[in-house]
Design a protein that fits this description.
The chain is built from 12 helices and 7 strands. By secondary structure, it is an alpha/beta fold. A 7-stranded mixed sheet has the order 1-7-6-5-2-3-4, sandwiched between helices. The mean pLDDT is about 95.
């Protein structure tokens, strides 16, 4: 997915949120914002939004000296999701349709996205979970069921810390021995890394790898050989969240995207309304 004009204000807002979290020094904040404005002005809009996201967060880390500005937020998100886990797992297991409920829970977890909003309250998470059980989904779950059943290998590409706990519900409904779960190769926003896979319990369920990249999405040219091999040989890819959608939606691969369409640009690209839970393969890139 290319970068749209409406993405540009979001880049600046995201940079400001991140640098304020990384440092209280106004001089450093100003320097980072100036460099982000310059980089944005020179960006090739044919690139995906996470390509610019990678630049932004590298600048924040470089000039603030803060290796992972979102670390405490990620830990808090994981802890709250783990508090919810026993009750939510019971809801999945006692549901009339456990697989569908697991998908809905996984999508609900995508609300924990600090690339879209600088703060996600516990009330918002709770309300999203409640709505997720009954609101209409965009997409066709039958393709996911059939593809998962016939696949010998499934690559599940995660998105955010906290959200990774919600992914466990779907992983547990699928065949764990088929699944490789992928996280980011380095800190970027509140995206999940190997440390979050360990903290969330995901690494005790399935094989976990990182993709070797610190982009908030999957830029294949920037990923490790190990990840690319897993990606290219998977019978089914489940990709969580907007960043993974932005970087992979143009590919002719057996990919099912699970996400909340939290911004109008992505909702418009998918063909749904903002706020819609999505479980779908991608539409072809819009021409306009």
């Amino acid at each position: 997915m290319k970068t749209y004009f409406d993405c540009i204000p979001c880049f600046i807002r995201q940079a400001l949120d991140a640098v304020r979290l990384a440092t209280q020094d106004p001089g450093i904040q100003e320097t980072v914002l100036q460099k982000v404005l310059s980089a944005t002005g020179n960006m090739d809009l044919k690139q995906t939004p996470p390509a610019m996201g990678q630049v932004i967060h590298r600048l924040v880390r470089e000039f603030s000296g803060n290796h992972d500005p979102f670390q405490s937020v990620k830990t808090e998100s994981n802890q709250y999701a783990l508090e919810l886990y026993p009750l939510l797992r019971e809801m999945v297991e006692t549901s009339a349709h456990p697989m569908e409920t697991a998908v809905r829970m996984a999508i609900a977890g995508n609300i924990i996205d600090l690339g879209v909003s600088s703060f996600v309250s516990r009330n918002v998470i709770d309300e999203t979970i409640t709505r997720s059980l009954s609101e209409p989904l965009y997409g066709n779950l039958e393709f996911l069921w059939q593809a998962a059943d016939s696949a010998e290998t499934i690559l599940y590409i995660g998105d955010n810390a906290g959200e990774i706990v919600f992914d466990r519900f779907l992983v547990e409904q699928l065949s764990c021995d088929k699944i490789t779960y992928a996280v980011r190769g380095g800190p970027v926003i509140n995206d999940a890394t190997l440390a979050d896979a360990e903290e969330s319990g995901m690494s005790r369920l399935v094989k976990v790898i990182d993709n070797g990249s610190d982009a908030p999405g999957v830029i294949l040219d920037d990923c490790s050989d190990r990840f690319r091999q897993a990606f290219e040989t998977a019978d089914l890819i489940i990709a969580k969240g907007q960043g993974n959608y932005e970087t992979l939606s143009h590919m002719e691969m057996p990919i099912v995207f699970l996400l909340k369409a939290k911004c109008p640009v992505i909702a418009g690209h998918i063909g749904c309304r903002t706020g819609t839970p999505v479980a779908s393969r991608a539409r072809q890139e819009n021409a306009g």
